């Protein structure tokens, strides 16, 4: 098998360079510039690699960087896909590689975007009133403190966990909220730049495809290097069945709320993959997240709180700020070739499953 280790990078700029160079000679790139810059003054952009025949019936979309630092995982998988020769067997498929869904967060090592919005809570119908999880406001003083003290954070989370269990704790944190713009898992008050850009660009690139599969790459939940595939289809739908068959029984649904656990603690509204019929209407869509594990959830969520505190209090350029960014990296992009190898191997598997799904569904 192709060894994709060198296709992974350590920064947004490096990953974009590798991605653009892997695209050269294979297809077109549509770049939508972002108005802000990265921490080193670098340009930011959402890039769409466009490959394959415009009139192919089938479409495959690979998305990286919905949550900023997780983009280094997705980008490595995307660039590996381009360099590995996998494309040679996909002449019946139009492929769109969406590089850096959230370029600001990618460059600045933030899960959220330039407005502290979690993009995977933002693909939401804002005309529908939203009720946040009741636990969010109880946990708010712990998660968004005035002073950063990890022991107090652990104690605050411990009190809630004692009463509601670990899955209950995680659900209260991650379900999403609209009323606390400086807090965590913030939905925003309307569609973000990233969402508007995707909605304005993707449909035109997939104008003629009738069946589209999308994989959105994520990291930070689950055991080290082990992915799980998660979608939002109900059990009795054709999409659920298609995933069940093509992904060899390994896909999970956020609608299966009776079986939530630490790896999938809640069924949040607003992820891209749950909004495909709005983003690409009049198509048969099959969308899923591939979520790769890194470190234990306590470490991931405490680090997200610390990172939020560092940004909110302007402490980026301090020893603590830099240490917090190192911790972000460990949580979302472990510096281990073994981990990258696991990412690549399971990325190949998931792309092959998605291709099989598309072909089986249209045979
Ligand atoms: Zn993520």
Q: What ligand molecules are bound, each kind once? A: zinc ion
**Topology-level CATH name:** Aminopeptidase
Mean pLDDT score: 95
In the predicted model, the low-confidence regions spanning at least 5 consecutive residues are none
Q: Please give the oligomerization state of what you see.
A: single chain
Q: What topology, given as strand order, has the largest sheet?
A: 1-2-4-3-5-8-6-7
What is the second-level CATH architecture? 3-Layer(aba) Sandwich
Sequence of secondary-structure elements: HEEEHEHHHHHEEHEHEHHH
Output the structural class: alpha/beta
Number of helices: 12
Helix content: 40-55%
Report the C-alpha radius of gyration, rounded: 19 Å
The H-level CATH homologous superfamily, spelled out, is: Zn peptidases
Number of domains: 1
General shape:
globular
Description:
This protein has about 375 residues and is an alpha/beta fold. It has one domain (about 5-135, about 165-360): Aminopeptidase, CATH 3.40.630. The chain contains 12 helices and 8 strands. It has an 8-stranded mixed β-sheet, sandwiched between helices. The protein is globular. Bound molecules: zinc ion. Zinc ion binds near residues 67 and 220.
């Amino acid at each position: 098998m192709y060894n994709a280790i060198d296709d992974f990078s350590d920064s947004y700029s490096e990953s974009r360079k590798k991605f653009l160079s892997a695209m050269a000679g294979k297809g077109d790139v549509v770049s939508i510039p972002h108005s802000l810059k990265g921490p080193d003054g670098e340009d930011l952009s959402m890039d769409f690699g466009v490959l394959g025949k415009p009139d192919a019936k089938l479409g495959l979309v690979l998305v990286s960087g919905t949550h900023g630092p997780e983009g280094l995982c997705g980008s490595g998988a995307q660039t590996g896909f381009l360099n590995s020769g996998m494309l040679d067997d996909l002449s019946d498929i139009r492929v769109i590689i969406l590089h850096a869904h959230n370029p600001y967060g990618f460059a600045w090592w933030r899960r959220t975007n330039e407005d502290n919005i979690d993009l995977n809570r933002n693909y939401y119908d804002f005309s529908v009133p939203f009720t946040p999880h009741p636990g969010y406001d109880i946990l708010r003083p712990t998660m968004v403190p005035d002073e950063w003290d990890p022991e107090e954070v652990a104690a605050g989370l411990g009190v809630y966990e004692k009463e509601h269990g670990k899955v209950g704790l995680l659900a209260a944190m991650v379900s999403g909220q609209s009323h606390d713009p400086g807090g965590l898992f913030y939905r925003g008050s309307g569609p973000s730049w990233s969402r508007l850009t995707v909605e304005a660009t993707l449909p035109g690139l997939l104008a003629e495809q009738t069946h589209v599969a999308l994989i959105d790459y994520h990291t930070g939940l689950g055991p080290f290097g082990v992915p799980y595939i998660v979608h939002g289809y109900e059990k009795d739908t054709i999409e659920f069945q298609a995933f069940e068959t093509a992904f060899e029984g390994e896909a999970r649904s956020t609608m299966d709320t009776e079986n939530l656990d630490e790896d999938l603690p809640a069924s949040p509204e607003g992820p891209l993959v749950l909004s495909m019929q709005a983003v690409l209407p009049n198509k048969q869509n099959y969308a899923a997240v591939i979520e790769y594990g890194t470190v234990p959830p306590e470490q991931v969520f405490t680090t997200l709180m610390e990172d939020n505190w560092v940004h909110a209090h302007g402490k980026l350029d301090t020893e603590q700020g830099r240490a917090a960014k190192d911790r972000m990296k460990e949580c979302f992009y472990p510096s281990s070739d073994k981990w990258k190898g696991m990412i690549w191997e399971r990325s190949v598997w998931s792309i092959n499953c998605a291709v099989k799904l598309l072909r089986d569904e249209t045979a």
